[in-house]
Amino acid sequence: MPPSASLPGPLLLIGCGKMGGALLSGWLSGGVAAGDVWIVEPNPATATFFRDIGVNSVGGAGALPSDLKPRVTLLAVKPQFMDEAIAPLVGSPRDLGLLLSIAAGKTIAYYQRLFGAGRPIVRAMPNTPASVGRGMTVMVATQEVSADDRELCSRLLSAVGDTAWVEDEALIDPVTAVSGGGPAYVFLLVEALAEAGRAAGLPADLALRIARSTVAGSGELLRQSQEPAAQLRENVTSPGGTTLEALKVLMAEDGLQPLMTRAIAAATRRSRELDS
């Protein structure tokens, strides 16, 4: 559920692009006071938008007030820009509170090298459906993160969807492969369904419309249902019917499952290569 209005201190959000902006919008909608949030965002249009609704904004971390003591510093900068964005904070005596990072590929060890060991750090991996409040975020924490800190992180990130925890940071790599890349695989399914429909004789625009609506509707049905995906699949599959014939192909030994398993393994390997 979204964070409540009562938070144990100010929030500092470094990076307010699509993901950071989605989080900030979720916090404000959930009752967090705009004046309790500081953002570091060099984009003037984004900064002005949030400043106009009462959020404190600066163009760079070096411009933050010296007496600001955030309860949580959330790092939502693209990985390739992280070094530059947080450079003014490295080596600073400033108290940054709990560090919560949603930057892909930036490991806990990366932040420990910059800010020192013994600091409470949470690494999180969200995915792009967060932009519509249907995201999935998986988190891992250092041993210094208290139970209250974990609960606070869950509240903050639940503003854009579901949350879960793992205890082994190595699992963030398969999480990245399954959840982070998952939307792309679903969009590819829409493309493949549409192309198969076109090959079967449907007009291309109608095939795409059918594929989009079918995948979107099926996802919403899955979200609302208490039944497992396998049961929902069986509900659609009549004995001797057309769906069964298609599933014989998709569920064959060389069908969708081994293909997806290889794809996730490849993405997991690449995620480990990109970790820094």
Class by alpha and beta content: alpha/beta
Provide the CATH architecture of the largest domain. Answer: 3-Layer(aba) Sandwich
Helix content bin:
40-55%
Q: Supply the CATH class of the largest domain.
A: Alpha Beta
Give your account of this protein's structure:
The protein has helices at 18-29, 44-52, 82-86, 108-115, 147-157, 172-180, 182-199, 204-224, 229-236, 242-250, 256-274; strands at residues 11-14, 37-40, 56-58, 72-75, 98-101, 121-125, 135-141, 161-165. Strands 3-2-1-4-5-6-7-8 form an eight-stranded mixed sheet, sandwiched between helices. The chain is an alpha/beta fold. The chain folds into two domains: 11-168, NAD(P)-binding Rossmann-like Domain (Rossmann fold); 182-274, Orthogonal Bundle (ProC C-terminal domain-like fold), CATH 1.10.3730. The protein is elongated and about 70 Å long. Helices cover 47% and strands 13% of the residues. It starts with 10 loop residues before the first strand and ends with a helix. Mean pLDDT is 95; it is low at 1-5.
